[in-house]
């Protein structure tokens, strides 16, 4: 349990340091945006590649990947009928609500907590891969098609996956 507290503690310290730096003007809005871009477009993908390069990919796509898929599908099996039938939500609202209910922060929170609790960041790889390879591209394509009032195609799903920075 102390590993979980330690993992969240490290995250809290980073957030606090960022808050103090922003509050005292050390990092202005432009610097904050630049740092966020470096983290999102460079650091997290590099970390993911580093973790994948040190792990056995067949083990990462085994049971844990299946559990990640089943957990998302389980949540969506409850959410989608509730949103569409009982609440009359649009496709866009249904997709956003479903992602809010079932998408996990495997990278920003999952990696440091897995390292502190288990001592190994590869435990978050299955959920991150499932989200990056399948879930996010499908959700983004559905959102795009809902906005344009067109049906999502296999090509639009593939393109949304390729356009993702991760």
Low-confidence stretches: none
Average of the residue pLDDT scores? 80
Structural class: mainly alpha
Number of strands: 0
Please compute the radius of gyration using only Cα atoms.
18 Å
Given the structure, what is the number of helices? 8
Query: What order do the helices and strands follow?
Result: HHHHHHHH
Helix content: over 70%
Which percent band covers the strand fraction? under 5%
Keywords, please?
about 170 residues, mainly alpha, globular
Explain what the structure shows.
The chain has 166 residues and is mostly helical. It has helices spanning 2-23, 29-53, 57-60, 63-86, 91-102, 106-117, 125-148, 154-163. The longest helix has 25 residues, at 29-53. It is globular and about 45 Å long. The two termini are 30 Å apart. The model has no long low-confidence stretch (mean pLDDT 80).
What is the secondary structure topology, with strand pairs?
Blueprint: H1 2-23, H2 29-53, H3 57-60, H4 63-86, H5 91-102, H6 106-117, H7 125-148, H8 154-163
Helix pairs in contact: 1-6, 4-5, 4-7, 5-7, 7-8
């Amino acid at each position: 349990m102390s590993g979980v507290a330690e993992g969240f503690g490290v995250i809290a310290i980073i957030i606090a340091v960022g808050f103090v730096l922003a509050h005292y003007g050390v990092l202005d809005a432009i610097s904050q945006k630049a740092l966020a871009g470096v983290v999102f477009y460079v650091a997290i993908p590099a970390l993911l590649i580093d973790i994948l390069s040190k792990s056995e990919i067949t083990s990462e796509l085994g049971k844990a990947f299946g559990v990640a898929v089943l957990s998302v599908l389980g949540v969506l099996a409850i959410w989608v009928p509730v949103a569409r039938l009982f609440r009359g939500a649009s496709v866009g609202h249904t997709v956003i609500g479903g992602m809010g209910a079932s998408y996990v922060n495997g990278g920003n929170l999952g990696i440091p907590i897995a390292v502190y609790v288990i001592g190994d960041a590869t435990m978050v790889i299955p959920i991150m891969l499932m989200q990056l390879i399948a879930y996010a591209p499908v959700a983004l394509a559905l959102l795009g098609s809902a906005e344009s009032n067109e049906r999502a195609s296999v090509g639009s799903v593939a393109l949304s996956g390729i356009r993702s920075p991760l």
